[in-house]
Design goal:
274 residues; 8-stranded mixed β-sheet; 11 helices; two-stranded antiparallel sheet; single chain; alpha/beta
Amino acid sequence: MSSDVIEAHVRRLPPVDRSRWTPRQAEREALERALLDGGVAGVATHPLDNVRGNAQMLLDRDPDKEFGLSGLQEGMSLDRVLGLVGEAAGVPIDHDARYGPVEIRPAPILDACGAAAPRLDRACADGERVLLATGHPTGLAHLYHELAREFAARGAKVEAPPPVRWRHPGLSHDWVVDEWDGVAVMTDGREPRHTHWPFAMQRTLEVLRPELVFADHGFAGAAIEAGVETISIADVNDPALLVAKAQGRTEHVLVFDDHVDPNAYWPVFVALTA
C-alpha cells in the first residue's frame, strides 16, 4: 500500500497502548472486567432491530450479509439464527421482541479465545502460512496488527498478499487488495475500507494459499467457502459466520462488539496469546 494511504489511515487511529498489548498470563476476572469496561462486551452497539433485520436479510439471500458463503439458508429460520447469536453472545435473544438492547457477555468471548488459542499456537510452532485480513480496518486495527506481529515473532509465516486490483462496473476507481503491517485490507486507493464483500479474499486466494486464516466479514466467509481453515470474528449483527459454524464448515468464531475503541480489544489479544 502506498505510504500516503498508510499515513492517512494511521493518523486517524489512536496510539497503541503498549502497556496493554503484551502477551501475559492474566486473571480471568480482570479480563472480563476489561472487556466490559471497553465495550467489547456488555450492551452491543447494534440493537435488536438491527440484529433481527440482518438475520432476516441473510435468510433472504442478501449478498451483503452472506459474506461469500453459499447455502446458509439450508435448515435455518429466523428463530434458529437468533438462537445461534444469543448462544454465542451468552444471552438468549427474545424471539418475540422487536426492539431493545442486545447483550454480549464477556465469558463466552474468553471461552472462544481459549478454544482457538491452541490452534494459533500450533500454527506458530509449525511455521505455518497464516493470513490475517480485516474488513474492519479501523476498530479492529490494533488487534489484527498486534496479532500479526506476535504470530511472526513466534514463528508463523505471516502472509503478505501481492497487490490485486479490479474494478466493478460503474465505479470510477479500482479496488485493491493490499497489505499493511502483516494484515490484508481492501482499499479504494485512498484508504482501507470497511467491507462485507468476499471479493478481496477470493482474489487473494487466487495468488496464495495460506494454511490458516484469521479474518472477519467477507474475508472470513470467502476463506471458509474455499475450504481454508479459518478463525473468525463476528459481531451480533453479522450471523453468517455463526451459521457456517452451525453447519460444521468452520470451528472457531469469536463473537464480540467490533465497533469500539481499537485499544479496547487488548483482552482478546491477551486471551489468544497468553
